[in-house]
Amino acid sequence: MTEKDPGAETDLDTQSKVEPVPAPQGRTEIIETDYEIGRDNLTSSWKLEFDIHQVVFTVSALGVLAFTFFTMAFQEELEPVFIGMRGWLTSNLDWFFLLSANIFVLLSLFLIVSPLGKVRLGGPEAEPSFSYIGWFSMLFAAGMGIGLMFYGVSEPLSHFDSAMGGISVGEDGIRTDWAPLGGAEGDVAEATRLGMAATIFHWGLHPWAIYAVVGLALALFSYNKGLPLTLRSCFYPIFGERVWGWPGHIIDILAIFSTIFGLATSLGIGAQQSAAGLNFLFGFSTSNPMLITLILAITAVALVSVVAGLDAGVKRLSEINMALAAILLFFIIAFGPTLEIVSGFFANLLAYGEYLPALSMPFEREDANFASGWTAFYWAWWISWSPFVGMFIARVSRGRTVREFLIAVLIVPTILSVIWMTAMGGTAISQLVNDGLTGVQDTALELKLFEMLTHLPLTGLTSFVGIILVIVFFVTSSDSGSLVIDAVAAGGKVNAPTPQRVFWTISEGLVAIALLLGGGLAASQAMAVSTGLPFTVVLLGACYAIVHGLLKEAR
Amino acid sequence: MSYTQIMLPIDLEHADRMEKAIQTALALAVQFGAKLTLVGVTSELPGVSAHNPAEFKEKLSALAQRLGEGLPQGAQSRTYVAHDPSVQIDGILLDAIKDVGADLVVMASHIPNVLNAIWPSHGGKMASHADVSVFVVR
Q1: Burial class of residue A517 (count of CB atoms within 10 Å of its CB; 0-12, 13-18, 19+)
Q2: How far is A203 from chain B (nearest CA, A)?
Q3: Is pLDDT at A494 greater than 50 in this prediction?
Q4: Global pTM value
Q5: Domain carrying residue A253
Q6: What's the pLDDT tens digit per position in B58-101?
Q7: Cβ(A258)–Cβ(A267) below 8 Å
Q8: CA triplet A68, A70, A71: central angle to 5 degrees?
Q9: What domains can be seen in chain B, in order of their start residue?
């Protein structure tokens, strides 16, 4: 830097938390749009500082308030309606969910091997924003989190059970059993294989492909094309300038709705499950004050995390989360049936590959109960979470190539899910089959993990790690969710004043408490899952946008 | 006594609210014959002021060039990219004081409001944490 060259970048050799901008990031196809980010925003900097998208924020905030009120006030009328709606969707449109999810998997796998995989998010010379460990921890903590804790033990066991039971046909010729595919009546080895394959199917490539599609579309359109980080941006190739109007508002409002109710209901239900765990371990009560205390505690930690920000809060907490999960996993592998788990990993991977085509078949399923009750429900659930998880994944993935992104979002988590499910479910099945322990089988869903741990050494310690992990998983969902909601409600701005995040984090907690006390958790969760349908259409559009957008980038 | 290096944090997004601070910094730079460095913080994501960090850097640099025309020592700029600017900005600006070697910070800040009792403004926070003089322009 010389004084004759004013405005030049100064040399920076001092230690600094943040790196100065590297040279221009290479050529990308910036989309020229008349839209200016924040154009429709309402800002104030005097009495109370805020910066929000007028339509999206207002409609979402009022909508959340109204919906919470009505589900509580008309609980008995609305609950059957929403649960009926979810049931109708998953049983009549199961083929649509299954078919779409297959498309997402195939597209992701294709992009990994195609030359389009070389495109770098943020331009050819962009550098990754986060280290592999930090990046991956955040992906995983936001993406699966809590479900792994409760379903890791229960789901393999449940499929194993129903597969063992074999097929039973009702009077009308329709199968009444819940066994996946043709079941495996009385065949322990085959029922184990089928049970594990079915579980891994629900936690493997398909859910992660759903997240990958949303994450990739958003990252591409924000970092490479220069559009704001909100869900509507990936519709630019389809709607053109109209995405900045009502079609876009609706997409964004729907995204906020599904995120906040998805988070609030899982917070409410999760508090009940955590309380049951605490009751099992320490004899704490499971009364309402206890549940409210739990929700408030989780919200308080999430609040500290969002106020501390992405690096100091969310990332650090996600890393702690991963470390704890790894400790629990290694403990179970070491003190559980070690050899069985190790060999089971390869056997289960093989079983997954073998059953994958049949399990993902969208049409002519003989196992209708399993395909719609389990698979289609899961797909709708993952898809309703995808705006939140996808947007968060996009937020932390700048500087990665498309190939790197997809391997990290699709392949690595799938392998980890296989390991996790093998260790948790495999140990539970082994306890049942080899040791004749029926404890886990007979216990309620939320206690299965803890019941399994009582048959391993150091129960007190591992159960404690387990319950902490459950709570931390909630926090990592709640804080990243609030960041996402805030960005969408601010029209894609990530530099909006911090108090807005506080508003959304507290709203989640309050909605959870209201629904818990007033009833309506089940209804709201059914509503959140039902948003999976419109979002499936949104995701199919995103698939087109991804290919369209990638073709125009420098490889 | 005099100042040799003035740091002027710039919010490109709200350039309209910055005019008074800019004029103050320019006057002081002329008065003391000090160098002026503009500091900007941007996110990696598209924002109001730029589509990407490179574009942000160019814009800030152009502004520095324009403001530096009337100054004996000219003006430079320095851009920082943050993962989460809303939260990191105060820390980054404090670091920037050292990076720039500033002995005076001139910055715009809003009029204190009710919320500032629990949520300090950027200018207020800078003034209480920096070990150099901070001129908070209201």
Answers
A1: middle
A2: 30
A3: yes
A4: 0.86
A5: 63-551
A6: 999 999 999 988 888 889 999 998 888 888 888 888 899 999 99
A7: no
A8: 65
A9: 5-137 (3.40.50.620)
